[in-house]
Amino acid sequence: MDIISKKCTDKNSNIYTSYPFSQALIEFSGENENIKNRLDYKWEDLRNRYCEKEIDYEVRKEDEFSNFLRLFLDWNRHFFIDKKEVVDVRTISSGGPDVELIFSGGTLQKVELEHNWNNYLDHKHQNNNAFKNVWIFAEEKFDLAKILKLYEQPKKDHNDRIPDIFLCIGEDNQRHAYKINWKEKKAEEMNLKFE
User: Fold this and answer.
1) Can you name the residues that pair with 80 across neighbouring β-strands?
2) Torsion of CA 46, 52, 53, 54, to 10 degrees
3) Of 35, 109, 116, 137, which is the most exposed, with the fewest CB atoms less than 10 Å away?
4) Strand order of the sheet with strand 108-114?
């Protein structure tokens, strides 16, 4: 701030004139006073001058919880998995898995939600103890060969920080849950029942 010239410079070297408050009230328009000036703007010129570029078209994915709620739960937070009753599903804080399944007996099961199976590893969850004994849901179809290819070595390296239970939508567009037997390299389908 240069007090003599009454000029103020910001960190980007833009220069502004400073005004006493009483003068500023007179100098600056309020509310609707400059509508005529705004209507006279050449919007195309402003866009070309101030907009760096238009963004490319892109498809944004819905957030993982919305997909889990819509695709897997079908908006129903009450279901049975291997005859154990899930009475509610709640989101949990960041820094760990995304949701908890709440069973009728009060026990909890953490579930990590992903768009694709490989995202779990891409996000380095296998290195974080918060993901110990977590289950995983992905929007991607279940493919045992792909799961084994992605997770077999990390399972050896990180043990219980790699999921054993995989929740998904199958090729038949139905909800499925699979428990992986890592030693036998097999997947056993778990019983799911939604009411």
Assistant:
1) 85, 193
2) -60
3) 35
4) 186-189, 175-181, 165-169, 135-138, 108-114, 99-103, 84-91, 79-81, 192-194
Strand partners, 109: 101
Boundaries of every domain in the chain: 7-50, 64-194
Average pLDDT over residues 76-104: 90
Tokens read off for 135: 């289950």
Report d(CA 131, CA 129) in Å as an integer.
5
CA angle in degrees (0–180, nearest 5) for 146-152-155? 135
Classified as helix, coil or strand, 195 is coil
Pair of tokens at residue 50? 């101030």
Q: Which element (helix H / strand E) includes 49?
A: helix 43-50
Using CA of residue 22, residue 26, residue 27, residue 32, what is the dihedral sign? positive
Mean local confidence (pLDDT), 11-27:
77
Q: Is the pLDDT of residue 186 over 90?
A: yes
Rounded-to-integer distance, Cα 162 and Cα 155, Å: 5
The candidate with the shortest Cα–Cα distance to 158, out of 125, 183, 136, is 125
Residue whose tokens read 């992986």: 180
Contact between 63 and 57 under an 8 Å Cβ cutoff? The reply is no
Taking every pair of C-alpha atoms in the chain, what is the biggest distance, in angstroms?
82
In eight-state DSSP terms, residue 185 is T
Q: What pLDDT does residue 58 have?
A: 58
Beta pairing partners, 181: 186
Q: How far apart are CA 132 and CA 158, in angstroms?
A: 9
